[in-house]
């Protein structure tokens, strides 16, 4: 008997459910036995092949025995043949051979017979054939004769309903992880069955299960389901568990008015339950729950006692559908019926669907909890968050919820790689609790805590990985400790350095203005960093026009003063030329001719002969500083001693491009060529070192984002603007006929008093697809005619670089009064006396982008204005934020919140932003900071993570370690 028991459990009927086999057996039993030997042999071969093909554990003793018997079927006696067919029928989920034959007949007669795998019974058809129980109008459907056969009892012994019920739409495939019960036990109640199976699973699996175990080890999952999950990319438990709920339905306690599709929670009594065998492979389970609901708000129907609450009873029809012959067996249907007995007090939550009969509602996605007594109701009535998963590959949401529940229940406790003290210090949930809390929360608070822990993990491993790689690149323990210290206290990581090199001092004297306090602090911080034994990796941020360029120039002078070289990389040729001219002008004013550094401009448009000369000069060290575009990082550009690389508008470059400078190493022992310096930059050790990197960002990046993008960068911020700047007056106007007329009037007024106007367009040419967009080229003639007596210029990305330079030069020199441009001027263009900007179709630009554009005016002492023309009334609201604030950090934060990091950073940069499946940078900044601290803490204890092998493994699982900058 024990053998039979284990077999029933281990070899699900699904393996034998093909109608072909059933028909063959039915035919053989009815017509066969007396068949000719050859025919019987053919039948036995057929059965043999079916069983061996379908049964995944054909080595099991019982199956081996069955196969042996099948093999000798052709020569067996009639009674043995009959016994064997009976055995195979039972294995197929039928009560007996007789039952199999009946089913075959019934299905053929009812016309529901479909060949083999096509035997899919339509749910709606089944529902029509077996309408819901409408109390008092239809009696309880009795489908069974009430006798429980021996085989049924066997099934009762070996299967708790739980396995079946949770795999609502699939058949069960047992795994070795579940212990087989050897002796008869009473049918367990729901509570006890759950407990026993959970504990035993846990014990059994804890040794073997890990987050990266295959999903096939989930108890009771069918092969079909397994494939389905794998096709959706859920190959491991981790992958599956990381399919997080999109949201949680806020289960409301049901009120008098119930709308279709609402997620509600009800307390009520089971009035009826039934299991229906709709076909040989399809069954329906229905529970009817009667709930009394009150209307707390209504005061209309006062009763005799002055009770203002209206009450009524509604009926919930909870339905589940099962596919597979095993689920149509009498014992199974009995068990599911008995799970919810008449009179049971239950709490039901889920999505309601209205039914044609008044006050009757159907629920197909639901949770049901049997309550001990009425006292428990108040606890449940508070509502449990109901996870709603993002759809994936057409997976049934109920199935997803069920499978998550099962996985969560068997997760071992010891899966957490993060050390216990970090968990305690940062008040985190354990990983196991976090997975439970996110998929099966008892309250929203629990879901929040779980979410926090999982977000923490996303950030933590990112920070840990980055810091780990940086530490690996450093030689000594002191350097490593120094680096960690630096990141531990970012605010005090740079000391104020008053002592500048003589070249830096001389250069600062050539400036036509005095540096603002914030510029001074920034220069000093950078100079301090330049003198550290580790390469600097610093991000210089500041609002538009705050004067970052000069700070970077001063940093370059500091290294040039000690005999090293500097490179200044910008994203456009326009900007390279502008910076080159700016620096050349400043250097011209320098009195001491002797120490004047030689500078060069290298862009894609530099003639090749001149490029060769520049390459040579950089190689020999004759050129101290080069300004250029990405041509600077070309392999053929070799430096004699590159000590600092400034990357302006660094968000326009990828990590790889920035990282390329790291390969341009220099030897720290190089002798100082500029003897005038008294700085102490050079180290005594003769070793090579990567250059210092000073990145500059014009789009202020919120601290959170900066940390996520460049967790390895120190931050310097310029917080004030040069004196004399008046805030740009911003107008937000709807771009209709009247709006344009007003704007043209304002432009005329500005031009009359000698102002210069930028007109910014979203596109160069008019497009048929987007006729509402104003185009720069198309408008040129119109604007020229409209503003006769004033000259117009055109600037856009499709022009040749010398044409662009020329257009900008003319505008700067006042040869043109109006510059029609696209967003090419957004970055870095500096024409201090430009006093007005009009942005057409301003809603096409992001808030941070508009702030950048607006920053092109108001860069001098002239009072400036910026007019944002909205394409429609609806877009006015979003733009109004620019009218209210001129703080770039605030606006960047707003943009981050409104449009997310991808849009704020632009395509290129956001491509380098790691993916965070659950975290949202715009709101989870504080968790990122904590994760950063935690990573520092861990690495502080063990630089190479040798003391935390689990963390190291997890880290390499999550992000294969790669060399920085590549
Ligand atoms: N301390 C200062 N006092 C007066 N003017 C200054 C000062 N510092 C810089 N400037 C001037 O302010 C203008 C803007 O400076 P700069 O181009 O360096 O700004 P930026 O921060 O790079 O701005 P953007 O991000 O818009 O490119 C320049 O014309 C520069 O000469």
TrEMBL record:
InterPro entries: ATP-dep_DNA_helicase_RecG, DEAD/DEAH_box_helicase_dom, Helicase_ATP-bd, Helicase_C-like, NA-bd_OB-fold, P-loop_NTPase, RecG/Mfd, RecG_dom3_C. It catalyses: Couples ATP hydrolysis with the unwinding of duplex DNA by translocating in the 3'-5' direction; ATP + H2O = ADP + phosphate + H(+). Keywords: ATP-binding, DNA damage, DNA recombination, DNA repair, DNA-binding, Helicase, Hydrolase, Isomerase, Nucleotide-binding. CDD domains: DEXHc_RecG. SUPFAM superfamilies: Nucleic acid-binding proteins, P-loop containing nucleoside triphosphate hydrolases. It holds the Pfam family DEAD. It is an enzyme of class 5 (isomerase). Residues 529-718 form the Helicase ATP-binding domain. Belongs to the helicase family. RecG subfamily. Residues 739-897 form the Helicase C-terminal domain. One of its GO terms (molecular function) is helicase activity. Its EC number is 5.6.2.4. PANTHER family: ATP-DEPENDENT DNA HELICASE HOMOLOG RECG, CHLOROPLASTIC. This is DNA 3'-5' helicase.
